[in-house]
Structure formats: structure tokens, C-alpha cells
Design goal:
By secondary structure, the chain is an alpha+beta fold. The chain folds into two domains: 275 residues, no CATH class; 211 residues, Roll (C8orf32 fold). 15% of the residues lie in helices and 43% in strands. It contains seven helices and 28 strands. The strands form five sheets. It has a 15-stranded mixed β-sheet that branches. Strands 18-28-19-21-20 form a five-stranded mixed β-sheet, with no helix packed on it. A hairpin with a 5-residue loop joins β7 and β8. α1 crosses α7, α4 crosses α6 and α5 crosses α6. The longest helix has 14 residues. It is globular. The N and C termini lie far apart (49 Å).
Amino acid sequence: MWRRIPTCLSLILSCCLLVLGCGAGAATQDEPAASAPATTAAPATTADTVTLDHWFVGELNGKKTASMHEVVVAHPDGSRTTTATMTMVIVRSLGTGENARSSRIDMSEMEAYDEDAAGRLVGFRFDQDQSGESSTAQGVILRDANHRPTGAHGTVVRLGRVQVVDLPLNADAQLLSDRELQERMARANLAINEQIASDCVYLMDDRLRIGHTVATYLGLGAHARRTFSETTDLTGIPMRFSLDAQGELARMTMDMGIFSFVFTPSPGPVPIPGGEIGIGALISSTGPMPQTGAANRYRLPNTVSIVQDEFQQRHGDILTVTSAAAPSPAPAASFLAQEARLELDDPQLRQWVAQAVAGAVPGSLAAAQQLRMAVRTYLTGDLTTNNLSALEAFRAKHGDCTCHAALLCAALRIAGIPARIEIGVVWAPELGSWAGHAWNSAYVDGHWVHLDSAYPGHPRSTYLKLAAGNGEDGGASPITALAMLSGTTVETLAPGAP
């Protein structure tokens, strides 16, 4: 489960950072601290043996944020099942004084990995719940006659909809459960900077994914503990961890710029009131405020990579962002396609879209704007509801900017208008700072146009796009981009400045 912590934490952090466009009614009352449920592994038979039962506590900037329980059960045939459950609470705040708002996000996750008597990963199960929205997945590992893994076959269930998934594996993939990888790290004779690569199946953003992890041995740290650094391609966020003399996790740290997360052993479940994230602290700014005109220029740190598209181009450390995009070729068919979180085939959603575009020329800018206004009217802004799929947002009728962006993207595609979700930051004059946000672009009349149903009235030149919020990288790339930009400074250049 420890290998899953960066993915789980960074996903919920990215949701916390994308908040604009939610009305003042989204403020919530303080809630009592919650205790992590005393969840254990699936009931074992009388012949099964519990070989490990450990608790851990996670702190975000010094505040107890997560509780994790890991149980390993050995079966009579030599196989074993590792089950881990994690509960996480994060409080996100926006604004100060009379304009201050806060919301609480609760997330729980169970993951179980089955290994055969030879230690080979053979099956997996996941259950996730974020603020009442749940997903489940299960599957098996496919192997050839020589027991080499060739892929994973599984199903994901959300909203009563079943998605069958087949994931291929590279020929050189090292498919290991978290438990097996940790045991290898504990017993291997490693040289300094020697690396151990591994792959595993994860449920992330309601999609089954194969994640590739590389751990680098750093030597013996405090108390003679084996110390490693590690990065997974699902987030790109490095973490550092140490193992005690028994090979068990002694400490894990993850640094996301202004956010620091630490995981350590605990004697049992603990109250987790939740770590707080101040949204305005994501990025510092210098120079004049961005202008509401046709273009703005920004100086970015060289360490920050940023998307270049029809609205924004980078030359050296200068990024130029325009409010209107130049004409461009028609996009790929994928921008009209259904995705796991863009459920274009729902009959009620399709009927609602048809009513929203009635009277407009199909595929026109007028149709796109009618849909933007329809989503804005239909969804009530709500900081406590985030990261819903398009259909979930449609049924819930409330949500934050991520929900607005998902629903509008699906609605545009249903109407035959190519569309995408965009993730990044926008200059919020009422906050006097940059804030994480999600919005849309649609392809109309030979060029892309900017659409924002959650936070309208701001030109595209005051946005910085960091990543796509849909497509194959829809779950991972926004996390990596937000983490990379957090804690940095963006300089707005005055007109005519070099």
C-alpha cells in the first residue's frame, strides 16, 4: 500500500487545488474529527494465518490526515493476500475574512493483491470512495505458458456501469505486489544508487492502470535503516522512504513544494481531523496583475514545463498566452469520443443536451455557448463535491470546477463539437492570486475557443494551462503539473517589457 500512497494523496490534492467557480453557499460548518475505521482483511478460514497486521498514520504539514491499515494473510496452499485500507481527510480553504470558505474532502480506499505460492501476482481488487462517490474494480493477471505476465484483465464498476479493461504489459515488465517489492528491497544486496524497477496495477481516476516505479537505494540512514528514493510514472512526484531492521516501513515522506506529507507507523487507528490546504498559497506572483486584454506574457521558472497549444507558446522562460487561438487543423476523432469519465451514451444526458442546443446551428459557436450557459445554470457551485464524472455531475446537479468541466466536455461532444478539459491556474482578481482551476476548450469554425462554465468572464490570456484533464493522461498529468508548479513564482510582464 505504501507504493500507492503518492498516487492516492496526489490525486486528492489535485482535486483540492482546483476550486474556482463555486458559490459562497459552498461553505461548510466545522465537522468533528473522524477516526479511521478498524478495517481488516477479508475473513480468513480457520487454516489461514495472519502474518502481518500494521497501522500507519499520515500527516500533511504536521496535521494528521490519513490512517492506513495493512494485513497479510497466508493461505494453506502457500498463497497469500495483502489487504490495505486507507482513510484520508483534507480540508481546503479559499479566501480570507468574510470571504473565507472551506470544505472537507473524505476519501477511503481498499486494495487487495493476491499472490500464488511462488510469490507471483495473480489477482487484485480495489474499492474507492471519495465524498460518497464509489468505484470498485477487480481482475486477474494474464500469463503465458512460462508464467511470464502478459497483461491484466479486469472490470471497473461505477454508477452501476461496468467497464471491461485489458491492459497489455511490456515484455520486460517486473510485475510485483507492493508487499513483494518491499520484501525484495529489504533483503537484496544493493549498491548505493542501484535501482529496482517494478510494475503494478492501480485504480486511478476510475481507470485501471499499469504503473511503473523505480526505487533507488540511497544507503543506510538514521538508525541503520535502508533508505530509498522512489518515483512512479503515474504522478512523477518523488518520495523518500526507509525500512526498519525487519524490512517494514519506518518512514515515508513526499514533498510537493508547499505541501509536505509524512507517513509513520502507528500503534492503531487515530483520529484524523485532516490537514488544511490554503488554495491561494499554491503559486506566488510578482509584477503587475494580468491584463484582461488580447495577450499576456509571463516569466516562468526554468524548472517548470508547461503545455504549449493554440493559446499559449513558450520561448525560453517567457510564456505568451492569447485570448483567441489561431486557426488550426481539425482535431483527432478522440476529441469526440466517449471516455471512462465522459459518459456520452446516457439517454437522459443526451436528451438534456438536445434541449440545451435547440435552435442553434449544429456545431456552431452559438451551440457551444448555449451549452456553457446550460451547464452553469444546471450545476450549483459546491466546494465539497469534486472530481465527479460527467454523468455523476449531471445526476448530482452540483459540484466544483472539475465537475463543470467534465459535464461541459461531455455535452459538447454529444452535440458533435470536439472538446477537451484543461487543467491549470487562473488569475483570480478577488483573491489577488493564482488559483487552481479546470475549464474547457471547444473546436468551432476552424479554431479552438475558450469556454468556462464555472468561472466565466475572464479572458484566456489570464489562464495558464498545465495539462489535459481527459484522455489517457487525464488522471496523471494534472497531478504532476500542479506539483511541479506549487511553491514557485510566476512573474507577469508589463506590456513592452523585455
